[in-house]
Automatic annotation (TrEMBL):
Location of the Integrator complex subunit 3 N-terminal domain: 2-126, 127-234
PANTHER family with a match to the protein in the record: INTEGRATOR COMPLEX SUBUNIT 3
Gene Ontology cellular component list: cytoplasm
Database matches in InterPro entries: INTS3 (IPR045334), INTS3_N (IPR019333)
Official protein name in the record: Integrator complex subunit 3 N-terminal domain-containing protein
Residues making up the signal peptide according to the UniProt record: none
UniProt-listed Pfam families: Ints3_N
Length: 248
């Protein structure tokens, strides 16, 4: 009964006050994608794709409008309690890599043992079904990144995880890079140009802000699959001329 009431409330808000829902930003799309198996939300999703005028927002004519709206960190932190945050900060700052498993097990048992808490994993990271959603959340800001309006630190976790996992944990780097390249081709085929520009802008911003010194760690690493290396090089070849020298 409660789930039915929650669904009805969300649908009513999305239908009647979509102008307010837009303030959530691009992660609204990611969340709605995760709910398309529910009939009421499937209808919302279809209208977003094919009939955006149904939402009666003057300047909302396509998904690109939402893609360009950054989701503020506030929306993620609202679901994470102060106690969870304190423990996460301790785990990330005081526990050496390689010694984290028992801390992770303790954290999961304490805060994530209920099935209702599964969605928190995505918000904490920023999960098969869980794993794919985790990766999507990790790269989501990459797909629509704009150097003028987005914070490069939102892209930092993914690039550092890929770069620092070579060569000891190269399987992680291969899996993440493969996922990113598949996303670029398949996430929204009609707006692939928007996504390509977003990802290339991320690489440029990461270099310009000194997050990484060079993309050679990915583009020329023998630890990566040869196929992935070639796909990445092909992607980077589309970088605007003004960025090319900085990527070499």
């Amino acid at each position: 009964m409660l789930k039915k009431l929650e669904t009805e409330f969300c649908i009513r808000v999305l239908r009647e006050r979509f102008d307010l829902c837009l303030k959530i930003g691009r992660d609204l799309v990611r969340l709605l994608q995760d709910l398309v198996h529910i009939a009421e939300f499937k209808s919302i999703w279809k209208d977003l794709l094919f009939n955006p005028g149904e939402f009666r927002v003057n300047d909302f004519k396509s998904m690109v409008k939402i893609y360009r709206l950054k989701t503020q960190s506030l929306y993620f932190s609202l679901r994470i309690t102060p106690e969870m945050e304190r423990n996460l900060r301790f785990l990330l700052t005081n526990v050496k890599f390689g010694n984290q498993k028992r801390y992770q097990a303790w954290f999961a048992k304490k805060f994530l043992s209920c099935s209702e808490r599964e969605t928190l994993l995505v918000d904490i990271a920023r999960k098969s079904y869980i794993e794919a959603n985790f990766k999507l959340a990790l790269f989501y800001d990459w797909l629509f990144f704009c150097e003028e309006g987005d914070d490069v630190m939102r892209a930092e976790p993914a690039i550092l995880l890929m770069a620092n996992s070579i060569p000891k944990y190269s399987d992680i780097t291969n899996a993440l890079l493969e996922f990113l390249l598949i996303l670029i081709d398949n996430y929204d085929a009609e707006r692939k140009d928007v996504i390509v520009n977003g990802v290339l802008s991320v690489f440029h911003a990461l270099l310009m802000n000194g997050v990484i010194d060079s993309l050679d760690v990915l583009a020329h690493s023998d630890a990566l699959s040869p196929v992935l290396r070639e796909m990445l090089k092909k992607l980077l070849s589309f970088m605007e001329t003004s960025h090319t020298k900085e990527l070499q």
